[in-house]
From TrEMBL:
Residues 35-104 form the Thioesterase domain. InterPro entries: Acyl-CoA_thioesterase_PaaI, HotDog_dom_sf, PaaD, PAAI_dom, Thioestr_dom. One of its GO terms (molecular function) is acyl-CoA hydrolase activity. It comes from Thermus thermamylovorans. Keywords: Hydrolase. NCBIfam families: PaaD (TIGR02286), unchar_dom_1 (TIGR00369). This is Hydroxyphenylacetyl-CoA thioesterase PaaI.
Length: 122
């Protein structure tokens, strides 16, 4: 399962199950900032894609809030993986944590909460 934005960025779904998702990408020349390292927007989009897939695996959901902490830069050619996992599920909301990893090292951490449109507890 992908969407046009994910395809544009070259992101691939590696795993999808209820409440979890893994999405991966490779840092390309078009993903760089003015310092020559990965742009935070690319990492955010990667994390947000895993977040969206994990949260919508329980039924339709829309983001209420998101936060991202960046730990280290990446250079072109680096492979990065976003691993989303559900940390709280209620009838109307759910919260997910997304770890971004490259070569086993933490690159960034994303946390997001969704409003569940279906409202059924998983």
């Amino acid at each position: 399962m992908t969407d046009p934005f994910m395809e544009t960025l070259g992101l691939k779904v590696r795993h999808l199950a209820p409440g979890e998702a893994v999405v991966a990408g490779v840092v390309g020349e078009g993903h760089l900032n003015l310092h020559g390292t990965v742009h935070g927007g690319f990492l955010y989009a990667l994390a947000d894609s895993a977040f969206a897939l994990a949260s919508n695996s329980r039924g339709p959901a829309v983001a209420l809030s998101c936060r991202m902490d960046y730990f280290r830069p990446l250079l072109p050619g680096a492979e990065v993986e976003a691993r989303a996992k559900e940390v709280n599920l209620s009838r109307r909301t759910a919260t997910y944590q997304v770890e971004l990893l490259s070569e086993g090292k933490a690159i960034a951490l994303f946390t997001g909460t969704v409003f569940r449109l279906g409202g059924e507890e998983g």
